[in-house]
Amino acid sequence: MTSIAATHGTPAPAHGDGHAVSAYHENLLRSPVFLGMVMFIGSEIMLFGSFFTAFFYVRFSHGHYPFGDFEIPKATTGVNTAILVASSFTMHWALVSAKRGRRLGLVLGLGMTLVMGLTFLGLQMREYHDLGFVPSDGAFPTTFFALTGLHGMHVFVGATLLTIAFVRSIRGHYSPDAHLGLEVTGLYWHFVDVVWIFLYTVVYLL
Questions:
Q1: How far apart are CA 163 and CA 1, in angstroms?
Q2: How far apart are CA 90 and CA 110, in angstroms?
Q3: For 121-168, how does the pLDDT look when each residue is reduced to its tens digit (9 = 90+)?
Q4: Contact 76, 126 (CB under 8 A)
Q5: C-alpha angle 75/157/203, rounded to 5°?
Q6: What is the pLDDT of residues 46-85, one digit of tens each?
Q7: Are the C-beta atoms of 192 and 48 separated by less than 8 Å?
Q8: Distance separating alpha carbons of residues 47 and 154, to the nearest angstrom
Q9: Which residues contact 128 (CB under 8 A, 6 or more apart)?
Q10: pTM for this predicted structure
Q11: How far apart are the C-alpha atoms of 156 and 49, rounded to whole Å?
C-alpha cells in the first residue's frame, strides 16, 4: 500500500483557478492505486452499460412491462435498497473516522457496512428464490437476472474488500496519514451503491 503520511497536514498549495487543494488529496489523485481503481470503475461503467442496453432493448420492444406473468417485488427490494444506501453512509463514517484517527468509528463503520452488504446479498438470494421464474423463462427474466446478478457479483467483491479492510482496522492498520486502501474500498463501494440505485429505479420502479 502506498504511504501518504509524508504529505498529510501540510499547507495547501494554491492553484491557478484560485482554489486550494490539500496536499493529501493531491497525492491521492496522483496515486497509481487510486487512479487504477478509477480506471477500473470506468471499465465497469461500460460493462454495466452493455447490460443496461440489452435490458432497455428488450423492455422497449414490448408494450407492457414487465411483460408476461412475471412480477417483481418492489416493496421488499425497496427495503433492501435502503439497506445498501445506508451502507454508503457508514462507509463514509468509517473513512472520516480514519482521517481523524478515531479507531472505534473506523471499526464500527466498516463492520456495519460489511453487515449491511451481506444482508443485501442474503435478501437478494431470498428474492431470487421467491420470484417464481428463472432466466430460461424468457427475455425479461434473462435480462433481469443478468443485471441484478452482475450487480450482486460486484457487491460480493465489495464485501470481500470490506472484510479485508475490517480485519486490517482491527489489527491497527490505517491512520490519518495512511489509509489509501480504505479510500479505494470506499470508492468501489459507493460505485456499487450508485449502480444499484439506478438499477432499482429503471428495473423495479419505472
A1: 17
A2: 7
A3: 999 999 999 888 888 888 888 999 999 999 999 999 999 999 999 999
A4: no
A5: 30
A6: 999 999 999 888 888 876 666 667 788 888 899 999 999 9
A7: no
A8: 12
A9: 145
A10: 0.81
A11: 20
Bridge partners (DSSP) listed for residue 24: none
For residue 175, report the phi and psi dihedrals to the nearest 5 degrees.
-145, 170
Under 8 Å CB-to-CB from 189, ≥6 apart: which residues? 87, 88, 91, 113, 117, 158, 161, 162
Spatial distance between the Cα atoms of 133 and 169, rounded to a whole number of angstroms: 42
Three-state SS for the chain is CCCCCCCCCCCCCECCCCCECCHHHHHHHHCHHHHHHHHHHHHHHHHHHHHHHHHHHHHHCCCCCCCCCCCCCHHHHHHHHHHHHHHHHHHHHHHHHHHCCCHHHHHHHHHHHHHHHHHHHHHHHHHHHHHCCCHHHCHHHHHHHHHHHHHHHHHHHHHHHHHHHHHHHHCCCCECCECHHHHHHHHHHHHHHHHHHHHHHHHHHC
Q: Is the dihedral of CA 107, 110, 116, 119 positive or negative?
A: negative
The C-alpha cell that represents 33 in the structure block: 492505486
